[in-house]
Amino acid sequence: MRVRRVGLLALALSSVFLLSACNPSGDAAEDFPGVPGASEAEAVDVEAGDDPADDEEETESSADGPVVVWWADGGQIALTISGSSTCPVVGEQIRVLEKAGEGNRVAIDLVQRPEDQVCTMDLVPHTTLFWTPVTVTTTEPLVVEVAGYEIEVPIK
């Protein structure tokens, strides 16, 4: 009888863990300075000449606009955008505009900073990771609207 209760408790806890990982709110999962590197927790300093890992899609800093790629085998979407090192451009939330089969399109909202906030005049990359919404797919190109840009992420 005791083994059965422990098994049920373990099943209940694992279900709670899995459901909490879905992140239905669309909030950012993680953000860090630099571009994605050798591991998902490591940032790469592009200006220092470090190279992104060979086993993930390569991302580069771009002063011209944001870079968006599939990350973690399509389980996440990585947004890298350059801005001030003291006031980085950070993604806040991802919203599905058109689900898979109907356009596969999302919008990423950025954290709004006060206009009077003092920021350095340098240009460095910053990355925000979002969980891939369940209503979009990696088997169709994904259109991402962010900061006035439309970026097409190719099929994974």
Descriptors:
single chain; 156 residues; mainly beta; four-stranded mixed beta sheet; 1 helix
Largest sheet: 4 strands, antiparallel
Distance between the termini: 47 Å
- By secondary-structure content and strand pairing, the structural class works out as mainly beta
What fraction of the residues are assigned to beta strands by DSSP? 25-35%
> Considering DSSP H and I runs of 4 or more, what fraction of the residues is helical?
10-25%
Ranges where pLDDT stays below 50 over 5 or more residues in a row are 8-21, 38-62
Radius of gyration: 18 Å
Q: Tell me the number of strands.
A: 10
Average pLDDT confidence is: 79
Tally of helical segments:
1
Summed up, the domain count is: 1
Order of helices and strands: HEEEEEEEEEE
Shape field: elongated
As laid out across the biggest beta sheet, the strand order is 1-8-5-4
Q: What report would you give on this structure?
A:
With 156 residues, the protein is mainly beta. It has one domain. It has one helix at residues 2-20, and strands at residues 30-33, 35-36, 43-44, 67-71, 76-83, 91-98, 105-110, 124-131, 142-146, 149-153. The chain has a 4-stranded antiparallel β-sheet with strand order 1-8-5-4, with no helix packed on it. Strands 6-7-9-10 form a 4-stranded mixed β-sheet, with no helix packed on it. Strands 2-3 form a two-stranded antiparallel sheet. Strand 6 and strand 7 (105-110) form a beta hairpin. The chain is elongated and about 45 Å long. The model is unreliable at 8-21 and 38-62 (pLDDT under 50).
